[in-house]
């Protein structure tokens, strides 16, 4: 009977240094300590932010009634949690982040392409959120420092000097939090999310007071005809899904720390559709109240706080908004590109270094030049969803239908494993990605099909899923569609 020598056994488990470092390694069982409360509060911290508030409130600015806006938010969040759950399982099962898991479908070299798309979008989204939060910083400083607003006479890169200082200060706050790694992120999210609920409830009470009850808020009619409503409805659903398109992909970056599948499933169920819908209701009711109080919908919460002309209300409210935006930005838009950049240069970058690089790169998107517009927000969100939808479809198809829910753990870190494909590239995944991107953006390319862009995320995820599955099922190589055995135990 032959035996395998210790040297041969070690050779089988050798990890290529260009594919492996501590941040990309499976999280050991003893360090998977996030429970359902952690996932609930992380999502609370992420959904309670200025952009999410504006996105929900701006539905009224687009002409929807309160009931139509609520239905739009609820449907979008039901779709979101289903896709989020589907892509969460592998992270919790293997303790692996998105940049490693995506190697199974694209190959270790091919994976760089979707990773770079996702990193680009996350850094862009960080810039948007950070600028929104910097407005709260500026509002606080304006209430505390005489002559603060006069600094706007000095222009820097299209901003007033006061605005530029607020942006710089808020960027520095992000750097401080991320410099302490994922444990600091976990601690910060634990209390940041619930804090914003207090502000939201306060604004809801105000809206009910000025409207003399909930009735007038819900009686405001829609200004949209039937055809107009359905067009805006699908654009809005796609935009709301696009808000979390990056998280759909990189949710394994969080579920890799889960104690169990049950913890991440329950925590996300409460945290995403539950608190997201609650926060949207707060935003929509408050924005509806502004129509009654001021004669126009005000969906920018900083502008609303300034309308109260009360420095104490402004400072407390802006502080809550600042914490909320820090919370979502660190969790959703720094963690993901940090892991992405580490994957590109595992021998040179750590999670913290990569996170700080992401923050610096984000400045070059200059969101202050184009931000405050409801139509622009939904167009940008639709483009984000369209770009990332095909990758999500490919990952879901690969894990559940090609791999039957099982990955070979060692092969993620080898250049001669079953995910090597052709020199690290899986042409079929790249073709599927191209088909998915074409489906997402064909409405922009061909004017006659412009209406299809309304459904960009849905078309992208569907086309990516179907085309990848068909290409892999008709593969001539048995290795590419190999159904793997149970993975080795992670120690």
TrEMBL record:
GO molecular-function term, one example from the UniProt record: nucleobase transmembrane transporter activity
Cellular component GO terms, alphabetical: plasma membrane
Residue stretches spanning the membrane: 36-53, 65-86, 154-178, 190-209, 229-249, 270-294, 314-339, 351-371, 377-402, 429-449, 455-471
Keyword terms: Membrane, Transmembrane, Transmembrane helix
InterPro entries (alphabetical): NCS1, Pur-cyt_permease, Uracil/uridine/allantoin_perm
CDD domains (alphabetical): SLC-NCS1sbd_YbbW-like
Record localization: Membrane
Keyword Hydrolase: no
Pfam families found in the cross-reference section: Transp_cyt_pur (PF02133)
Membrane topology qualifier: Multi-pass membrane protein
Family: Belongs to the purine-cytosine permease (2.A.39) family.
Official protein name in the record: Nitrate reductase
């Amino acid at each position: 009977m032959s035996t395998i020598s210790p040297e041969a056994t070690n050779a089988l488990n050798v990890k290529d240094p260009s594919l492996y470092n501590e941040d990309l390694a499976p999280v050991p069982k003893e360090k998977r300590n996030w429970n359902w409360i952690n996932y609930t509060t992380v999502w609370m911290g992420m959904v309670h932010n200025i952009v999410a508030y504006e996105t929900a409130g701006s539905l009224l600015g687009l002409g929807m009634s309160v009931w139509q806006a609520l239905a739009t938010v609820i449907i979008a969040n039901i779709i979101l949690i289903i896709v989020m759950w589907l892509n969460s399982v592998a992270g919790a099962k293997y303790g692996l982040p998105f940049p490693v898991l995506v190697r199974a479908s694209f190959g270790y070299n091919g994976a760089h392409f979707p990773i770079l798309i996702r990193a680009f979008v996350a850094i862009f989204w960080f810039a948007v959120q950070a600028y929104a939060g910097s407005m709260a910083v500026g509002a606080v400083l304006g209430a505390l420092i005489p002559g603060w607003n006069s600094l706007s006479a000095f222009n820097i890169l299209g901003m007033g000097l006061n605005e530029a200082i607020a942006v710089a200060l808020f960027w520095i706050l992000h750097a401080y939090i991320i410099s302490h790694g994922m444990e600091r992120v976990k601690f910060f999210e634990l209390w940041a999310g619930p804090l914003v609920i207090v502000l939201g409830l306060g604004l809801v009470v105000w809206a009910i007071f000025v409207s003399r009850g909930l009735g007038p808020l819900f009686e405001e009619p829609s200004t949209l005809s039937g055809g107009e409503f359905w067009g805006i409805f699908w654009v809005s659903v796609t935009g709301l899904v696009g808000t979390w398109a990056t998280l759909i992909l990189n949710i394994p970056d969080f579920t890799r720390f889960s104690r169990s599948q049950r913890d991440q499933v329950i925590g996300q169920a409460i945290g995403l559709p539950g608190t997201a819908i609650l926060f949207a209701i707060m935003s929509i009711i408050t924005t509806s109240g502004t129509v009654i109080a001021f004669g126009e919908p005000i969906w920018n919460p900083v502008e609303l706080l300034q309308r109260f002309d009360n420095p104490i209300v402004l400072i407390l409210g802006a502080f809550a908004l600042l914490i909320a935006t820090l919370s979502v930005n660190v969790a959703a838009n720094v963690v993901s590109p940090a892991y992405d950049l580490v994957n590109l240069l595992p021998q040179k970058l750590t999670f913290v270094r990569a996170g700080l690089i992401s923050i610096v790169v984000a400045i070059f998107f200059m969101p202050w030049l184009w931000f405050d517009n409801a139509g622009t927000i939904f167009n940008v969100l639709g483009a984000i969803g369209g770009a990332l939808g095909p990758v999500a479809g490919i990952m879901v198809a690969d894990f559940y239908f090609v791999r039957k829910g099982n990955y070979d753990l060692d092969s993620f870190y080898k250049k001669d494993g079953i995910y090597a494909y052709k020199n690290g590239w899986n042409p079929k995944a790249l073709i599927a990605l191209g088909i998915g991107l074409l489906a997402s953006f064909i409405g922009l390319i061909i004017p006659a099909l412009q209406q299809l862009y309304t459904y960009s995320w849905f078309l992208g995820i569907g086309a990516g899923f179907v085309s990848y599955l068909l290409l892999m099922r008709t593969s001539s190589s048995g290795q590419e569609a190999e159904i793997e055995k149970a993975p080795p135990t992670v120690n």
